[in-house]
Each structure stands twice: as structure tokens, then as C-alpha cells.
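Re-run requested by the PI after the first attempt was lost when the workstation crashed. Everything re-entered from the original request form. Ligand of interest: 2-phosphoglycolic acid.
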Amino acid sequence: MTHKLLIANWKSHKTLDEAMQWVDDVGSVRHTAHTLVLCPPFPFLVPLGQRIKEKKYAIALGTQDLSPFPAGSYTGAVSVRNLKDLGVTYAIVGHSERRRYFHETIQEVANKVAMAVEENITPILCVEKETIWKQVSALENGLGKKCIVAFEPADHIGSGEPEKLDVVLSIIKEIHEAFGASVPILYGGSIDEKSSLNFLAQSKISGLLVGGASLDAKQFLKL
Ligand code: PGA
């Protein structure tokens, strides 16, 4: 199996103590060939980032969202400028839960991608079958090629049942047509230690975006 990207999306789970423990548990195991990216809630970025640096853990940091606006008068928003110097190298953008519960539009998501790229943060742009072409056409020229795209069918998120592999592969083909053949594509939605093997064995799948199964350090390490 080649080198893959494993993204832990904690959503709004965990206390700071639990978060620190997870980082120690995962970081102290010399992990696999894969790149691990932890996307914790915003308040934990600084303490976790410090711990990762101090202990030289092989864990990259990402955010679960970011502001579509530059630094300025946008109360409650976290701009890319706020993230500068915190060691954040990835940002999940346009997750279906953001689109659904926070009513994010295609254009806002596109603006977030632009913000991330401006600060050299790699956007992990989440799409569903219905949003692929709308989302790519809302991106400014060339931005699509700077994304990692995550195919995340909302019906399969947190459902306990990942989408069927042949369906995922056919959607990946479409995403490559839309974004370009060189764009890495992840799958996310109810991945656990059992289903991960099949997905990671596919050359067209560059990694996994994992919610529920990322919360427990031991379970995450088994992916
Ligand atoms: P899940 O979440 O693994 O719990 O289905 C995936 C996601 O929302 O990114």
C-alpha cells in the first residue's frame, strides 16, 4: 500500500485533557507509512501544536473550518491570519455538516478555499456527488488543482455504513474530470478499521477522512 493521508476530524468532541491524551497515545506510537492529520476544535490547536512540536510527534495539524473573509471585523470568525504561525497546514472546507447546519453556500466555500491557499494551507474540500461541478466552477482559476478533494456522501456520514466501493470509485472518476487528474481524492463516511483496508488498497483513493473512528486513539491507529 502506498503512502496515504489519514485525517482525524474530531468535530466538536473532547475536552482539552482528552485531546492531549490522544495526541500522546497516537504520537508516541511510531506510526505507519501514512501521514496523520489531526483536525481538533479550534481552542485545542495551540496546546496540541505545542505538544506535537515539543515531542516531535509525526502528526500534522489541520482545522475543521476557517473564515471566508480576511482578517477584520467579523466577530466569531477565525481567519487564516489567526492561524498563521500555529503550525496549521491543512483545513477542512465545506464539510456537509457546515453546509447543512451553518448554511454555507458554494460561494462561501470557494472563498474559504481561496483564503487557505493564500496562506499556504492545503484545503481539504469536501464534496458530494451533487456539488462536484457547482463547487469546481465557483473556484477561481487554478484553485481546484490546489485542493485535496474529499468525497463525503452525507447519507453515509455517521451511519455506520460506508458508501459502496464501486460507487466511490465512479464518483472519484467524475471528481478527477472536474478538478483534474492530479488532484488527490479522499473518501469519508463511516470508515472504521474493517472498511479502511479495502478503501486504502485503491490507488485512486489517496486517503481517508475519518470522524467517529478517529476519536479513540487505539481505534485510529488501527486504520
Ligand atoms: P464519520 O464522519 O467517519 O463519523 O462518518 C466522517 C466525516 O464527517 O468526515
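Saved to the shared folder this time. Residues 9, 152, 157-158, 188-191, 209-213 surround 2-phosphoglycolic acid (CB under 6 Å).
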